[in-house]
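Predict both folds.
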Amino acid sequence: MLFRLFRKLLPFCLLLLLSTVAKAVPAPAGIVISNTGTGTYVDSATGLSVRLKSNTVNTTITVLEAFTLAANQNVLVASGTSFAISHTLTNTGNALTNYRITASVPVGSAFTPLNVQVTQDTNSNGRADAGEPVLPAGGVISLAPGTSVNLLLTAQAPVTSTPGQTAQLPLWRLWRPRPQQPRLKRRLVLSPPQLTTAAQPLRQRLSR
């Protein structure tokens, strides 16, 4: 009877273990986790201690595609001035992943930002400095599991924009995992920063 109960509880224990591991740090894809349960009880007929061993359960870790892109922002800019919006892209999955980055201005904005670019903020100072790599439209960034990259979305509010007008700048990501583990391409978008023009230039730089 105890053996039957033990066999029924083993799968739930294994799922609990895997859930705990997944919440900590994603295990690398392809890793095999082996689990064998044991239990001990005293036989009431003989008074002897009996040790039972279950069959070994093998679980192979598959590719987990996950990431974060932070954060949504509302930015106040002055007509005719340049601005930079900081974002951090993090690979929270368990496989090396390529991200294709594109910024665009959707139809319907009250004004169209000029010279839109995405720059890697290599020194994390929130400014597009000389020598920092500028990503072309559709440029690719490769991130290993647990790593991140700081991105700056830079542009200029046109002089023709008027106070109170708003525009949106979505930052698009098209990603696929490493070539030996192909997946369907997916396109996602961060809820775009909303830009509002102001009558006076900004006095304070946005912090990350």
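Second protein follows, with its predicted structure tokens after the sequence.
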Amino acid sequence: MADSSEAVRKKEETKGIRGKTVRILLLVAAAAAVFCGTWLYYVKSVVPGNAYKKAAAMLADGKTEEAIAALSDLEEYIGKNIGRISGTGNADELLALGWLYSEGIGVGEDQEKALDYWLRAAEAGSAMAMELAADYYYEEKEFSKAAEWYRKAADLGNADAMTALGVLYENGQGVEQDYAGAAEWYRKAADLGNAEAMASLGVLYENGTGVERDYAKAAEWYRKAAELGNAGAMTSLGVMYETGYGVEHDYARAEEWYRKAADLGDAGAMTNLGYMYSHGSGVEQDYAEAVEWYRKAVELGYARAMTNLGYMYMNGYGVEQDYAKAVEWYQKAADLGYAFAMNNLAVMYRHGYGVAQDYRAALEWYGRALEAGFGNAGDAIREMVRAGNVSAADAAAWLG
């Protein structure tokens, strides 16, 4: 059958506080602020048992689990003593208290209480608290309030807030959609060294939204962000080298950037590496290696990798041919809203690969793929009508 692995490269956006390492930093910073009276202590502070110093040293050595264990006593200490905090402290203390409740560190997790502290800290002039309050409203889809607080933080020079405001303008969330406005905010944040903003500018230049399309400038911004450790930008820069847009075509450089991003946990980069090995693009074709990379990305819940892994099972590349497993992976990706997988799943039902042949199910999945933006699915529906697999009336429900 035709190549049904996905070659499209996309930049995935990530936002918010995640991961054990960040949890440790929040614990250290917040407790230092609350119990030592100033935000500036961070990991330099000393509390009973030198827990901060121990955890900071372990964290520096990459010993995340050990650092968590070292802070367990401190977390208990926070829980026992937080009641003595009056809540009338300065902005930094209020900010820290909000973090403790947001992360459930030493106290029960309470997002509304965290927001209350952040709003009080924001009113006291904390730009970081303004940003965190905006993050809360963004997660709650209260975009107008999010835009209001991001703007206040941005006006105080907070680069992360500027970047977030750019996202709102780009998506038309809480503000009127304005790509040029998004580019303006991204540029302001980029000028302050914000890597995410640089990467976002790269996307705008690559797509020609809000700015004149310029692949060279896109590559330039991706490179700046990549050099600051932004994994998404590394992947995007790899795509530029693989396709020759904005830079000289160079598979070796593409692989280099994909590997760097993959080492940082970027599922898109892992999938792109898998595609290179599957098709022998700049590397020796190696289906087993391709499958390995797809599996790594699949473990991160990445739909494009699921689709490509399904393709490998469909054709027996790097794995034993197994139509049922191909259907399973297409289904998982389709359930995540991935149009390409929906189309592939329709193919399986149409021809009875790994499932009982079912033209109505095929029509439904082609229709869903079409609704999700996969234009070729419309042609497949028309072919089914011409072949007498489905009626023109049933097809019209999807084709309009």
